[in-house]
Design a protein that fits this description.
four-stranded antiparallel sheet
Amino acid sequence: MNSVPHYRPSPSVPSHRSPTQAQSRRGPGPMVAPSANNPHQPPNAQQLQQAAQQDRELAKRRARKPTDKTIPESLEKLVPSVKLYNELRDLERRYDATMMRKRLDIQDAVNRNVKVYKTLRIWISNTAKDQPWQNSDRPLDENAFDFETGQIPMFRVRIEGRLLDDEVENELDADVDLELGTECGSAKPETSETTAAPVQKPIRKFSSFFKSIVVELDRSNNLYPEGNIIEWRRPPPMPHQPGAPIPPPPQVNEFDGFEFERKGDVDVMCTIKLERNETPDRYRLSPQLAELLDTKEDTRAGIVMGLWEYVRKNKLQDPDERRTINCDAALRAIFKQERLYFPQIPDLTVPHLQPLEPITLQYRIRVDKALHTAPYAYDVAVPIDDPIRAEMAAILASPHYAQQTREILAIDDQIAVIVQAINHSKAKRDFWMNLALDPKGFVDRWVASQKRDLEVILGDTVGVETEETRRQAFYERALGEGILALLQKQQQQVVMQGQVPPMQ
């Protein structure tokens, strides 16, 4: 059905070489100094040191960056709005926790591949042209040998489909928009400039639900050599190499109607086979596995999850090795094993999976009238992504969220700087207030504090020993204990020989 475009090759143009170029190729070219910005040149030691120094400077700046946004309660007597500030901070923390929890819920909902089923209605019709009964009013050629009209009888078949829920939702959305527009209370007449058209949600095309559409005509190939099988197939995805990025899906021009035209002047039966296109793919289960999981069709992830629930419910996990499954009678009948290693289950279920059977429709092509439509339409339940999933993904990927987060962080930094300045101002105020209330006592306390700090720094205070002093005391104590132990050992040896009485 898809015509392959033919491209005319462009004429080859012979290459011409100038004498100057020919002469320049006889010997080596001029020496060119390497560029300082050559990306292929490895950095030297000096550049690495500079980069490390810059990283250290940035780390120091981040370390010096104020982060405390708490105003002490002692300022409430001086500034009444401090209490309101602390209440707003508590409210902000609750809002942040709530929004983060909701965002995690949205992310979890987006990661779950939830499907909803909608109804795809399919119509089939055909038209006939240049049939003998349509050419009865044309006079026959008297000089023709076979008395034919020269027209070739043909018929055209059209298969089209559309989601019913999408049309209903768009109509409801349009009605709601109109009602909201009338309830605004505006007395001005509506014009084309003030009235905005309702935004319609994108509707999936008929071909997007199928991998292939095959039509088989029930007639002889000898009488009709042009072919009795008409098919359309979706291009297969590009192979994915391990470690390489996932290639984008192939571009396909989706359509709402599938048409084909063939020669014929008699009625003919046709069989339409529609192979479903689902992501992820669903498979038809074997009778034993379908009876165990109580479903005939499911995805691979759904099958593994169903088996896991069955194992947990029947307590088939090995008590020592939790990843090992002790098969019961039902699992032994399916996998033919006594014990299973659970990570092997996806591979063990492959022989029990088969592709879904295509949707088969029967239609009789009639050529006894100009337009013939099937007496009834076909409704097919098709799974689609939850509509709210796309809205949730748009919320997570919104660039406004990152921009607003950066703005909030910048405002938080400004608040931290202001709070630091407030704390410094309060420390200065306390200093001068204490000095004004008790000058002599404050100066004495301040001098004593400074003296104590200086002694701690220099190590002159009682109880503060330097490293050398502690090391010397340790070695002297260890040396004395060693000498005493040696003398006692020698004395014990003399006592055992009975030469002198023991030491008291």
